[in-house]
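User: My advisor, Dr. K., asked me to get a structural model of this assembly before our group meeting. I'm new to this, so sorry if the format is off. These are the inputs:
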Amino acid sequence: MGEIPILKIRDCLLVSIQVDMHDRLALALQDDLTQRIVEDRARGVMIDISALEIVDSFIGRMLNNIAAMSRVLDAVTVVVGMRPAVAITLVELGLTLTGVRTALNVDRGLEMIRGIIDRDEREDDRRDG
Amino acid sequence: MSDHQNFLHGLIEKHQTQLLADWLACLTRGSASGAGAHRDDDRSEQAKRFIDQLRMGVRHGQLSDISASDWTPMRELLEDISRSQASEGISSTQTATFVFSFKEPLFELLRRNIQNDTDCLARETWSATRLLDQLGLFTIECYQRTREELIGRQQQELLELSTPVVQLWDGILALPLIGTLDSARTQIVMESLLERIVTSGAEIAIIDITGVPTVDTLVAQHLIKTISAARLMGADCILSGIRPQIAQTIVHLGLELNVISKATMADALRLALHRTRKTIVSRAAAPAQEA
Amino acid sequence: MIVETDDTMPVRTSDDVVRVRQAVRARAVAVGFSLVDQTKIITAASEIARNTVDYGGGGTARIETLRNGQRRGVRLTFADQGPGIADLKLAMTDGYTSGHGLGLGLSGAKRLVNEFDVTSAPGQGTIVTLARWK
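Assistant: The format is fine. Below is the predicted structure of the whole assembly, which you can bring to the meeting.
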């Protein structure tokens, strides 16, 4: 297991990034998450970056990778808690988080995931029905 | 050479009290009446410190370059004086005149003490005048810098005042933009909006551009940056106040704003309420009053 | 212009990248940058430092704090003896990448600072200088 704890809230996984990440940690996180999504049959992955003062293209890549990988496993990824200074810098940097939804905080993030899962289930019902 | 170096120093040291008295008399003569006792106290204090620092500065004979370390305390004193006078609104001429007026008592002192050597008198007078000129010009520089800082601060405050962010409802913010949107303004706008989004937990920000005179490519870029930043944080934006001419310009320039736009703030609010899953209902009319 | 502080540190591993960020933050705070300006210069430093490690085979980072009259600033110089950049113009365009991922590196970092300079040629290593003023 890596050094970043992964919590389970109902059918969502919550990861809180508190430390300055380096390569090993980032790779370990991606591996751990993949495993946990399958093990816990998670439908949502929430990444809390409210403690991050810097988000550079490395972290951006990591977030995009996590989103892509969880999509393959039919889970929704939401990044929450981005700081204003970080948002302003990312826009200036020109970095886009593709396939990554964002929400203001954990509460909103959970609502969003819930909303998407429910909507998808309705879609499926309609198609099958 | 060392004679010359220490001459001025020795002279000032010996006649300091007289110099001060003469100078203050000079200043009082030259200034407008009714300056008040408070001003007078300040001025004699400043004059005394000036002469002290002048004596210290010439101690090692450094008369030609006031940026040398011997003159650091004097420069600091002059900065102090300029700064406080600048913020009191006293003109830079008055501040510099304070320094230049010292020439009168100083030259008088030189004249009295160099009776028989006209060459020496000319030399000393010349180096003293050069020194005081430098010091006077330095005060003008300080003064200008202080005024510029003041103006800069006022501009900043104005900028902040003119970008208010209001909360229209739970989770709905409005940002009425007034005036042109340049890059400096955009920075401030982005920062206030984003901070407010965090503190109020807003889901939607309505950016109203009724008060923005023109929307060209640059302004559009700034708007897009602001909207992107808000979205990155998890809030969405609605643009309102799009006048017909603005709509035409946007199409004409081929600008892709990539955001929902409404003509009026009311329309934007209606949409925002809908998006945040709120409905407004009219209350039933009150029943007739019992007689 | 006066150079007030001047420190150089190695940039060879991804742990070094973290150290560079921390060192740049310390200087940016000392110079009195606003939070947003701090974030911008630290992010730019992080981008270039990673390039130095990933593509330059490791190198050094020099962090200077400057004073020009009333203005204060931070200047960073990243140097490596790596393969160098073949097509500088191409490398400076948005979206260019020589590896996987976003590859915003140079052009993105340039937008975060006031002064930006790259000197590089194949076989001659790379030197990237960035500066941000208060």
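One thing worth pointing out at the meeting: The interface with chain A takes residues 14-15, 17-18, 21-22, 25, 35-36, 38-40, 42-43, 46-47, 50, 94, 100-105, 107-109, 111-112 of chain C (CB under 8 Å).

User: Perfect, thanks a lot.
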